[in-house]
Design brief:
- About 75% of the residues lie in helices and about 0% in strands.
- It starts with about 25 loop residues before the first helix and ends with a helix.
- It is globular and about 70 Å long.
- It is mainly α.
Length: about 270
């Protein structure tokens, strides 16, 4: 009988290896990716292009149908304000809800597990688009003022100051943030869009009717109606009381719901 002896396997002493560190993706790169996602699809491209299209159409409408004494820079800004107040919040809504409606969130949050940085990059991209859109509208309005003055033979009237333009930009950014907030809270494109139109069209009429028929609510409306509180921004005449009313109404209607929406985005399961 023979016995087999096991040959000892040589072992090497463990070596100390440096701990592997993973550097986070730069925020600027995330912002670039989010901007590309807003423009790459056909629907996203035409939504962004509609910003320039509606400003040109609004300026053309002012030149064609406005009386000669109304061909002023302020008239062009007012004409472009309504369509811009609708399009910009839609951009804010779709920047969030597209991750869920198009099921791209599974990929996005896998490649970038830090959801907070993804949401921050979306927010910065949305605000950047909002500011850029307002400057596009400013340029189109300036060209429209010059063309309208040349057609009517009158001198161009530049009756919007830098301060007034800044207030108008702030008002539109608040609208974009409202859309962004609804996107984070509802995470559904149809639901968020319907909710925004209820907020922007139905709610102001209901609160205005209540203020017209109830004296006690007339004095209370500026403190509870965020749409009413933003009107002085468009008028360019904001007092200290107006700023306080805007701070209180945006806290109730914007910042608190946005905090709950962000918590849901950071914690909810992506399906």
């Amino acid at each position: 009988m023979t016995t087999a002896t096991a040959t000892p396997v040589p072992t090497t002493p463990p070596t100390d290896r440096a701990a592997r560190t993973i550097a986070p993706i730069p925020l600027t790169r995330l912002m670039g990716v989010e901007l590309r996602k807003m423009f790459d699809t056909r629907a996203g491209f035409w939504l962004m292009a509609s910003v320039g299209i509606v400003t040109v159409l609004a300026s053309a409408a002012v030149i064609l149908w406005a009386p000669d004494d109304a061909i002023t820079f302020e008239t062009f800004a007012t004409a472009m304000g309504m369509p811009m107040s609708v399009i910009l919040p839609m951009i804010g809504i779709l920047s969030i809800t597209s991750e869920y409606s198009q099921r791209t969130g599974l990929t996005t949050y896998t490649l970038v597990p830090w959801r907070g940085r993804v949401v921050l990059s979306k927010l910065l991209a949305v605000l950047g688009i909002g500011v850029a859109s307002m400057f596009v509208a400013l340029g189109v309005g300036a060209v429209g003022t010059l063309v309208g003055s040349a057609v009517t033979g009158l001198d161009p009237v530049w009756n919007i100051t830098v301060e007034q333009f800044g207030l108008i930009v702030l008002a539109n950014l608040i609208g974009m943030l409202m859309g962004f907030m609804l996107g984070t809270v509802l995470r559904s494109s149809p639901a968020a869009i319907v909710a925004y139109f209820v907020y922007a069209l139905v709610l102001p009429g209901a609160l205005g009717a209540l203020a017209a028929f109830q004296q006690w609510f007339e004095d209370l409306q500026p403190w509870v109606d965020v749409n009413y509180a933003t009107i002085p921004l468009f008028d360019g005449n904001v007092t200290g009381e107006n700023w306080l009313q805007l701070a209180i109404t945006t806290t109730v209607w914007l910042w608190i719901p946005l905090a709950f929406g962000l918590r849901a985005v950071l914690r909810a399961e992506v399906k």
